[in-house]
Amino acid sequence: MSTASLIRALEDSRSDRAGALARLIAFLSIPSVSTIPELAAEVTRAAEWVASRLRDAGAHSVRVDPTPRHPVVTGKMSATAADAPTVLVYGHYDVQPVDPIELWDSPPFEPSQREGALYARGASDDKGQVLAHLEAAAAYANAGGSPVNIVYVLEGEEEIGSPNLDAWLAAHGDELIADVALISDTAFVARGEPSIVYGLRGLAYMEITAQGPNRDLHSGQFGGAVLNPAGALCRIIAKLQDADGRIMIPGFYDAVRPLSDEERAEFAALPFDGAAFDAATGRAGGFGEPGFAANERIGARPSLDVNGLVSGWIGDGAKTVLPARASAKISMRLVPDQDPDDIARRFEARVKELTPPGLTVEVTSLHGARPAIVDRDTPAMRAAAFALKAGFGKAPVLSREGGSIPVVNTLAAKLGLQTVLMGFGLPDDNLHAPNEKFEIDQYHRGIETIIEFLHAFAEEHTA
Amino acid sequence: MSTASLIRALEDSRSDRAGALARLIAFLSIPSVSTIPELAAEVTRAAEWVASRLRDAGAHSVRVDPTPRHPVVTGKMSATAADAPTVLVYGHYDVQPVDPIELWDSPPFEPSQREGALYARGASDDKGQVLAHLEAAAAYANAGGSPVNIVYVLEGEEEIGSPNLDAWLAAHGDELIADVALISDTAFVARGEPSIVYGLRGLAYMEITAQGPNRDLHSGQFGGAVLNPAGALCRIIAKLQDADGRIMIPGFYDAVRPLSDEERAEFAALPFDGAAFDAATGRAGGFGEPGFAANERIGARPSLDVNGLVSGWIGDGAKTVLPARASAKISMRLVPDQDPDDIARRFEARVKELTPPGLTVEVTSLHGARPAIVDRDTPAMRAAAFALKAGFGKAPVLSREGGSIPVVNTLAAKLGLQTVLMGFGLPDDNLHAPNEKFEIDQYHRGIETIIEFLHAFAEEHTA
């Protein structure tokens, strides 16, 4: 693989930064919120957009494969050399909902450039990072060809737990033979600190629905003689976690792998963007399990969060209703070696145990993912380290992230693939929150870093 | 006052039951939800409708008086005799919101007749009962004149705590000189058991707004290192009330007047519609303060209810958000001699005390009302007892209700008026809930009972 082709690809990319930005703006304008049934056609429109961009970038075998819900987009780039390795690039073109919409400074699907960043839902998670891959591929196509074979798997259901991805991967295993998987859906640990994520937390996302009286009642006519399901649900939730955040579900911590002294030293040495953390968290950022630093609490310890809570009258002013129902969405982030199914069972058992007479409770598991730890010393990890240093001018740190990317486990289990998590987000990108952004410099350097990675991985392979 | 006029009025009412029902359907079709700002014009439309009906019924001095929010409708009927007493009739033409709309079997503002009842928001609370008064007045007008003077005060802000009524009453005191106030906004203790309510609970309605992080965060990227305001709010609410419903706010019970043995015997003797109670409450109806019967818990003991709860993602499916805010609406029903301002202060102090570091809490009082007990042996109470027996064929019981009608205290304080609470609802009317109804027989007999009351009160007065 010649360095000339790398240089031409980088030059091609640099010469069309305006075009790459315009394409990102077009992509971000499609409201592909996978969880909202009314937007299903928009999710499909985003899939078609991705397929069209893949074709323009020189990919072949491009398809938009329907699934029971949202399609998987796939396509291939062929390497110029016959013995080149294959990289499977996974990403997702669906996005989170935008609520609370009133807290956005600009409309979430009308991308807005401010202070070097592009603000839109999905900018960083994950459309901007997905498109960086397609832009890198197009640059190689314009430069004479790719140094590696690439298989793209771009799904539209990541934000709803990828319910149809496993079946799709199983059905297309023979098209997906690769040497490594590459995912850009993570962030730097701090601005200016390129990072390779080697650990991700798992997830058990539960919903509790609590029914008290048969129907909504007048709180004057009935209050005092009827169990209030909202109050009762609060009493249950209050017993799931103590004031320091320690989770009070019997056996919850049994499978948690303790941090070694060496790992704790690594966490302590990691750069931590305190300013971004403080800006996002305010006074609430002082919270957490005693004896652990903030990045350990996020990267290496399990957590429990109430993600949603609703009952009764939530409009302005007063309504004296004694509600029939109350419900809560509660998710737990898991660490090795916790098992999401086991945790979901323990959660349900504990909630049932805490349920008082007169309350009828249903506990549902909405979403589960295993925690993941990947090998830190492989040809692909070395290529990623080289590429990030080339793209951002600084050697990357190895970090563990608090989020979950369930596909990492699926790719290992179904296709035997190790994954490299080389992402270009920043800690203050406001993922899943109002005013999500992707910094334009991270985008352009991300494209160049992917160009560097593909070259370096081919070199590692032939070395 | 001649009995002939009473008989003619009753005959007039019976001859136009279809008309009275059609007018109620028209009145109920106006969505006069006072708490929703977007419906302010509909509230005014309902006020104009009431004023027009008052004029048609033969009232004079009819006005729709604007207030800073929703108007007060007033008007007068003059007695045929010069020495006749004056009755002040209070009612409200505003209604509660309709949420949860999906639980209604027919649209709340398209009145639907089923099994002898008219289903619509406001049917029983209070439009049906207000209109019964106007129909009774019209019957007397058609029959040659009213046996008493009547002053109508019909407001549009009862369901939001009557914020402008006190000022209106103070400004119009000289137009409101009367011998007694009559309100029909209560229910029978059981089907077939006419009731006069002599006690009402008070109310302290509070809102808690809790702020955790500065903005919504990704629960993977931050979970475990940031205080979750929804979880923290649940822990606060869980400490306000124990599993039996006893309220754990220091000093909350200090001013509660204990029930005497005599009062407890009266409660035990009251008819109790167990079937209606069970149908509404289901298994949740087994709840309450130990040592008290259900009707004591509702009529004579204070209570605390969570009326609303909201935080984070409340749509379908999963969103892994760590919300910035959580809020709760919590109301307490009060009994003699609790003071709503004192209780609001104690509530706020307790919530502040329970607030952990990292959570910022605001506590607001949305609405307050004193509990009320009225004299049980007065000419007006005797007239009401006579009228209910005439209208429904059975002597009424004296009962205490769990709801609040703050105006009872205001009428006593500002105008020196004792109030008679003679209502025609039933315990299963679904006030403030989906499928509110008013039974058509209760409506027609209610009109006749009011006709009887006005005659009987005139007789008591001249006796």
Structural commentary:
2 copies of one chain form a homodimer. Helix content of chain A is 36%, strand content 22%. With 463 residues, chain A is of the alpha+beta class. The model of chain A has no long low-confidence stretch (mean pLDDT 95). Chain A is globular. Chains A and B meet through strand 9, strand 10, helix 6, helix 7 and helix 9 of A and strand 10, helix 6, helix 7, helix 9 and helix 10 of B. Strand 11 of chain A pairs antiparallel with strand 11 of chain B, so a sheet runs across the interface.
Assembly status: homodimer
Low-confidence stretches of chain A: none
Instruction: State the helix count of chain A.
Output: 14
> Judging from the principal axes of the Cα atoms, what is the shape of chain A?
globular
Terminal CA distance of chain A reads: 11 Å
Task: Please give the number of β-strands of chain A.
Answer: 18
- Protein chain pair with the most extensive contact, residues per chain: A-B, 107 and 106 residues
Overall average pLDDT of chain A: 95
**Biggest sheet statistics of chain A:** 9 strands, mixed
Beta-strand proportion of chain A: 15-25%
Report a brief summary of the structure:
Two copies of one chain form a homodimer. Chain A is an alpha+beta fold and 463 residues long. Helix content of chain A is 36%, strand content 22%.
Features:
four-stranded antiparallel β-sheet, 463 residues, 18 strands, homodimer, alpha+beta, nine-stranded mixed β-sheet
